[in-house]
Amino acid sequence: MPDAPDPALLDVPSVEALRRTVAEQEPLLTGPPLHDSVTVRVRRVLGAAADLLELLDEDISGRPAGARTTGPVDDLDLLARDTVARAVTWVVESVGAHLRLPSRFAAGHAVEGEHPPLLALVDDLDLLGLTVDHAYDAVHRADPDHARRQREVLLTRFGTTTRPDRLVDETGVRPEHLDEQVLDDHGLQVGEDGIPRLPVPEQPDPHHAQDGQTQEDT
Fold it and tell me: 85 lies in a domain?
C-alpha cells in the first residue's frame, strides 16, 4: 500500500500565487533599515525561489505545473512549491523579527557561545539560499528524494509560526474570472495586474490656449 500523502502538502499555493508573493515581499524585505549583509542574502533567497518557480513553469518532469495540487509526496512540482512557500514565509518572519530589534543590540549583543542576532540571521539566510538552490537542482534532475531532503531541512531548521498558505495570497484576479460582457457594459479596462478599472479620462493640455485666446492673453 502506498504511503499516505503528507497532510501539509495537500494545500500548497500555486506557482502564480507564489510568484506574486515573492514580488510583493521583496521590496518590503530589502528596505533601507536592513544591514547590507542581510539585504544581499534576502535577495539571493528570493531570487533562488523565483528561479525555482520559473523552472516549474518549464514543466521538466512532464507533469502539469501551476494550480494547487493534491498528490503523492514524490510529486516534484508539489514539493518544490512547498519549499518556496516555506522559504519565503521564514524570511518574512525572521527579517520582521530582526527589524524589531534595536540595531546596536542586533549587531553586537550575543548570548555566551552564540553569534549576535545579525550574524545568526546572515548564517541562516546563507543556509536557506543553499537549500533552495539544492531544491532547484532536485527539480532539474527530476530527483524527488533529493527534493524531499531539502524540504526536511526547511521543516527542521526553518520552522515558522505562520502557515505558508496563509502568507501567500491566492485571491488574485485571473483572466478566467473576468466577464468580458460586464467589462464592456461598464467601460472597464484591465490593467497589467489583471485588475479592471475605469479608464482615466484624457486630460487637456494645460499649455493649450483656449479658443479666441493668444499665448499673451493667457
Answer: yes
Q: Is 45 exposed, middle or buried (0-12, 13-18, 19+ CB in 10 A)?
A: buried
Cβ atoms 76, 139 nearer than 8 A = yes
pLDDT tens digits along 171-193 = 454 555 556 766 676 666 666 55
Cα–Cα dist 164/25, whole Å: 13
- pTM value is 0.68
What is the distance, to the nearest Å, from the Cα of residue 131 to the centroid of all Cα atoms in its chain?
16
What would you report as the CA-atom Rg of the chain, rounded to the nearest whole angstrom?
23
Exposure on the CB side of residue 171, measured as CA atoms within 13 A: 3
How many domains in the chain?
2
pLDDT of residue 100: 82
Same domain, 88 and 138: yes
With residue 124 as reference, give the H or E element that holds it: helix 117-140
Verify that 108 and 22 share a domain, yes or no: yes
205: in domain = no
What's the N-to-C CA distance of the chain in angstroms? 86
CA-based torsion, 82, 87, 88, 92: positive or negative? positive
Q: Whole-angstrom Cα distance, residue 16 to residue 171? A: 11
Q: Are 147 and 83 in contact (CB under 8 A)?
A: yes
Give residue 192's domain range: 171-199
211 within some domain: no
